[in-house]
Structure formats: structure tokens, C-alpha cells
Sequence to fold (232 residues):
Amino acid sequence: GAVVSQHPSWVICKSGTSVKIECRSLDFQATTMFWYRQFPKQSLMLMATSNEGSKATYEQGVEKDKFLINHASLTLSTLTVTSAHPEDSSFYICSARKPGNTGELFFGEGSRLTVL
Amino acid sequence: AQSVTQLDSQVPVFEEAPVELRCNYSSSVSVYLFWYVQYPNQGLQLLLKYLSGSTLVKGINGFEAEFNKSQTSFHLRKPSVHISDTAEYFCAVSDSLVAQGGKLIFGQGTELSVKP
Fold:
């Protein structure tokens, strides 16, 4: 299967600072990546769709100025949590769509953000 | 609008016993169904998917699922579980192929706990 990698796996930051999370497709080019947020013991909530070379499409209720998404290349999308607050603490997961008829999604390992 | 309901939040089972994880969906158009597994602090791994054709779908690790259109269900089964199957399982639905812009909507998840 294809490989998608996220970095960092764990990050702790102070309230008010910004944190950047990277999502890389290691062995295929992904024109589309997705960012999800997962609270403890809960499901994945789609935050936004990241398209290479264009602006991300955000789901209803997700603040685009809070969660900045950049998809500058076919193998890298970044999520920046700006001016983080404790309520932003969560598990963030990305997925990348592999080219092909069905466009199967491959998920990263996730990044756990803790805001103090 | 699509939705997915996983009827059991937790399923405890003894090793080598059979297990069924239930999933019901609602969708007004074509439906594509998926089961993913998530191990602690990791991303999601695809177990199996139904796109079309045979309603009985076989996946990895000995899992299988049956698409039942009349009951709008896609239950996941395994005839004999192992300790290593302990994980969170997510059912997901999409109304179009990901390659055509479809987005996955996830259920709430079912925690499978296999006891010796």
C-alpha cells in the first residue's frame, strides 16, 4: 500500500503560539489531501479538503483563519493551527488521495496536539 | 445527506470467538462503503470496501462485510478474533468515488476489545 507520513507525531505548545503539522505522501503524488480532527473516543470530523495549487475547501463551522492549510506541492500539505488555545488540543489526521479510478485514501499516523 | 450509525460503541469478546460490528447508513444516492481500523495513536487503515458488484466483500486480516441494500447495512464480521484485533473500527460512507470528489463520512466508531 501507499505511505502517508505526518510530522510531528506529538506536539505540545503554549497557548497563543502557532503550530504547523505536515502531511506527506511518500510514494505517490496527491493532488487532494484531507484534514480531519478526532476528539478522544470519537469519530473523525472532516475539517477541510486541500487541493494542490489552490485554496483549501473548508467544512461548515471550521475557521479557515484559525486552521491554515497549504498544499504547495503534490506530496506535501500543511495544517497550521494559529494562536492555539487549549480547546484546539486534539488528534489531527490527514489522508491523501492516490490517483486512479477509485482514488483510494491513505491515512497518516496522526498528530496529537496539546495546547497548555 | 449521508450519515453512518455504528450501533455499538464497545464490543468485548473472547479470543477465538466470532464477532460482528454493526453499521447502518443513510444515503439518498449511490453509496460506497468502507471499514477502517485504528490502533491506538495511529491513523486509519483500510480493512475493506464496497464499491459495486458482489455484496459480500472480503478484506484484510480475515474480516468480511456484507452490503445489504434493503436493510441499509454494512456489518463487519470475523469468524475468529485474535488479541491483536483489539482496536477501534470505523464504518464510512461516500456518495461518490473519492476520485470524483467524494468525501468520507465516518461513523462514531466501535471499540473492539478481545480478551484472552
